[in-house]
Amino acid sequence: MLKELSGDNAMSRARVFVWDKRFSEGREEVEDDERPGRSVTSRTEGNVQKINEIVRKDRRLSIRMIVDMVNINKETVRQILHDELNMTKVCAKLVPKNLTQDQKDNRKNICSDTMERLTEEPDLLTHVITGDETWIFQYDSETKRF
Question: Are 62 and 74 spatial neighbours (Cβ–Cβ below 8 Å)?
Fold first, then answer.
């Protein structure tokens, strides 16, 4: 009868029997009983503000890095980022990584060499098939090699 009246929102048959037993034993309130264990204190306004400041300084941080910084469990940090700060995860492959000084110097040298080669061979870029932020692939039509 309860399912006919409330549809899918109705309590299950087993749950009805549990509550019937509780009320027949003298219970008068429908709120849950106090549960043992640690209270939830991680999701405070102070922690939300702290995580917000950390993320605003460096958006490339992973959730695990933030967890290590604020000493709160991973799921709570994820919920704060998603629910409180309205942030979503994006594809990490599109986020630039921090380069070491050697990597920066290497990129500079490669770019300088490419610029010099372009002055010597103005048609160099006609041999480029694919290019992205990291690599340039060159195809030599005579030898048919990359």
Answer: no
pTM for this entry: 0.39
Residue 29, both tokens: 């309130």
State phi, psi for 107 to the nearest 5 degrees.
-65, -40
Distance from CA of residue 113 to its chain's centroid?
Answer: 38
The one-letter code for the residue type at 118 is L
pLDDT tens string, the chain, 146 residues long: the values are 767 777 777 888 888 888 889 889 988 888 877 777 655 667 888 999 999 899 888 877 888 889 999 988 898 988 888 888 888 776 554 344 577 888 889 989 999 998 999 899 888 888 776 655 554 455 566 666 55
Query: Facing residues of 136 across strands?
Result: 131
> Hunting for tokens 């999701």 — which residue is that?
43
Question: What three-state secondary structure class fits 129?
Answer: strand
Q: Which residue has the tokens 């549990």?
A: 18
Cβ-based burial of 60 (10 A; exposed 0-12, middle 13-18, buried ≥19): exposed
Q: Which of 31, 50, 136, 119 is nearest to 61 (CA)?
A: 50
